[in-house]
Amino acid sequence: MIKVNTDAQNIAVLTFEVSDKPMNVVNETFLNELNDAIKGALSNIETKGVIITSNRPEFIAGADLELITSIKNAKECYALTERFHKLFRLIETSGIPFVAAINGTALGGGYEVALGCHYRVALNNSKAKIGLPEVTLGLLPGGGGTQRLSRMLGIQNALPFLLQGKTVSPEKALKAGLINDLAETEEEMISKAKAWIVENPNPKQPWDEKKFRLPGGEVQSPKGYQVLPAATAMLTEKTFGNFPAARLILRCLYEGLQVPFDLSLKVEARHFAKAVLSLESKLMIRSLFYSMNECNKGAARPEVEVSPVKKVGILGAGMMGAGIAYSSAKAGIEVILKDLNQEVANKGKAYSAKLMDKAIKRGRATKEDKEKLLSLITPTTDPSAVKDCDLIIEAVIEDRDIKATVTKETEAVTSEKSIFASNTSTLPITGLAKASARPKNFIGLHFFSPVDKMPLVEIIMGEKSSPEALATCIDYTRQIKKTPIVVNDGRGFYTSRCFTTYIIEGICALNEGVASALIEMAGKAAGMPVGPLSIADEVSIDLIYHILKQTAADLGVDQVEPNTFKTATKFVTELGRLGRKSRKGFYEYPDEGQKYLSPELDKLFPRSETQPSLDHLKRRFLTIQTLETARCLDENILTSPRDADVGSILGWGFPPYTGGSLSYVEWRGPDNFREDCKELEEKYGPRFKAPRNISSLVDSFYD
After folding, report:
1. How large a percentage of the chain has pLDDT more than 90?
2. Cβ–Cβ < 8 Å for 502, 534
């Protein structure tokens, strides 16, 4: 796994390659071999320095999470962190220079290996990422990362990398101080590493110097008094205390930066153990790492051979169509962007130009990249322009008749092998496929807005959708670097159906006389991105109205929630309050300044004298979404817990700390969840009735 080559200058180059994993990761074997290799190099009195590098595209992608998830108690956790700390302190205090030659991505435990070295030179690869993203999985750096990075950069500059898990390219890592130098080739990287070793024969880490002072000010200093309390306040305001790891990181900094370095490592180890053993980290790792990786690898893909998508036709150049066109062209796929109006089609292409201009301004793309991407997009009004497309994505208005017309028009000019996907968010695919002469090739491909930012694509199987259609859509979704989930057909499918319950519950609470500000605060306090009334405005109230009206027409008025239907109808047909797009909805949107909850709400929805607690509303909002997820499982709309949890987090922002809308039952505890349902059912009715099999549903899916 680790090769050691010593040159004529007596500089040892340790090159590692984890053979039993798809990427280099820190695991038991790696730790043992690195420890042996370093001790071996140090045992040779002729060794002038050591370079640590990799023989794979990445430096080290991070710690092997199997190593973390296998930990059963604090004692095991302390033992693991002690191994890291002893090894890195051996490097730091060896008396000879150690250089990390970072040839690719260095994340988490991988970057901590680099931090343990005296110097870091990285290959200038824009695709590589450097940083400490542990907090995004409910963890914190456990190999000294919180203490070394903050001592290198100062508290304020280290916070984005520790609290947000921010990762950056090598070029930006150099500017931020995460590395010391850049090289354009691997040869230059090793050459620079050796040159530094020769010039610095007796290095010391700054924190091992007697005169060391924390950059930017000590914890107990005027600057420290400003930074840490402000960071704590901002964290509380943003997360409402829902992410324990972030709080523990702040404690690592506050406590660890006031004691000698070796003692600070013990501080970090104690808080690391708390994070590792937390329920939040268990659920986040399961959903955001294991389950998401399964989705990204196409776990639901049937074993059939289909050709890669080389050319895609997009019908409708509005916001969704334009976003899909950009994402496709960015992946190198040729795009035909078709609309009824040439001006609209051109505007759809211009959307990609605007996004590329932003990328150029931020240093993430070049003018050549922009020209190449735009050359792949052809705006047109000609229906026959899509004739040789492998995949057609229909992204027109949510109207069944218009979609039927577009389907027939397109199938008249396309190949029998061409796959036709509808980007509908609510209309059943089986019903839409009735307009198709080739229903086996008809499937749902639900993108989320804005497409360039939202990572999820929901693939919907109609009754007659073929394995080939599914395979094509999964392959295409992976081509454009989105995460696919696969669901069966039904009104609202999975994401729209469950997400809508959050909006409906907020509007119901408003009708009950709950203060609008309390409703919005409860949504955010529960961990949702924004409150339900704010989301209603963003989605647009007229869209909600049309969906409810269509549902009532198709299934009967008793199948829609009456308060929501009444409110949406009044807002659209009487008040003209359509949401953000009309500059008024539940909120007001002034020309200047931030939006604010409309004072009209108190007139339209008189406040009740008695208001529910914040905790009650939080549980109400999360419980209803979880119950709808359980119903989707029960009705076979969902067939995988993986898709349920990943889809809920990526699709509509269900709180990640819970692991997702299905894992919420485990986070809350099955007994507590049932009690919540009982309480809410008594107060609000049968929509909160818990399925008898809620525990077995979760247990059987996650065995």
Report:
1. 88
2. no
Which residue ranges form the domains of the chain, and what is each CATH number? 2-277 (3.90.226.10), 311-491 (3.40.50.720), 496-636+640-701 (1.10.1040.50)
For residue 149, which of 94, 92, 207, 83 has the smallest C-alpha distance? 207
> What are 245's two structure tokens?
């790891």
Strand order in the sheet with 98-102: 2-6, 11-16, 49-54, 98-102, 119-123, 181-183
User: How far, in Å, CA of 244 to CA of 241, rounded?
Assistant: 7
- 590-645 residue pLDDT tens: 999 999 999 999 999 999 999 999 999 999 999 999 999 999 998 999 999 999 99
Interatomic CA distance for residues 230 and 224, integer angstroms:
10
Are the beta carbons of 310 and 339 closer than 8 angstroms? no
Predicted TM-score of the model (pTM): 0.93
SS3 label, residue 597: strand
Take residue 55 and report the two structure tokens written for it.
């023989």
Asked whether the bond before 57 is cis by omega within 30 degrees of 0, the reply is: no
Q: Which residues contact 303 (CB under 8 A, 6 or more apart)?
A: none
Instruction: Say how many C-beta atoms besides its own lie within 10 A of residue 290's C-beta.
Output: 15
Quote the CA–CA distance of 576 and 583 in Å, as a whole number: 10
Annotated catalytic residue, options 118, 446, 546, 616: 446
Q: Are 494 and 433 a contacting pair, CB within 8 Å?
A: no
Beta bridge partners of 235: none
For range 165-183, the mean pLDDT: 97
C-alpha–C-alpha distance, residues 502 and 652, integer Å: 10
Note if 616 is an active site residue.
no
Mean pLDDT of 192-210: 96
Closest CA to 318 of 292, 290, 340: 340
Q: How confident is the model at residue 309 (pLDDT cuts 50, 70, 90)?
A: very high
Nearest residue to 60 (alpha-carbon basis) of 98, 102, 3: 102
Q: Supply the pLDDT for residue 358.
A: 95
Q: Are 98 and 116 in contact (CB under 8 A)?
A: yes
H helix or E strand, kind and range, residue 616 = helix 614-634
Q: Counting every residue, how long is the chain?
A: 703
Q: What is the DSSP string of 141-190?
A: --SSHHHHHHHHH-HHHHHHHHHS--EE-HHHHHHHTS-SEEESSHHHHH
Write the DSSP assignment of 443-454 as a string of letters. EEEEE-SSTTT-
Residue among 143, 55, 150 at smallest CA distance from 107:
143
Kindly provide the residue ranges of all beta strands, DSSP E only, lying in 205-318, ordered along the sequence.
311-315
The β-bridge partners of 12 are 6, 50
- Dist. CA 510–CA 12, nearest whole Å: 69
CA distance 264 to 244: 20
Distance CA 203, CA 99 (A): 11
Neighbouring residues of 609: CB distance < 8 A, sequence distance ≥ 6: none
Q: By the 8 A CB rule, do 386 and 396 touch?
A: no
pLDDT digits (tens, 9 = 90+) for 177-197: 999 999 999 999 999 999 999
How far is the C-alpha of 281 from the C-alpha of 165, rounded, in Å?
A: 14
- Report the 10 Å Cβ neighbour count for 17: 12
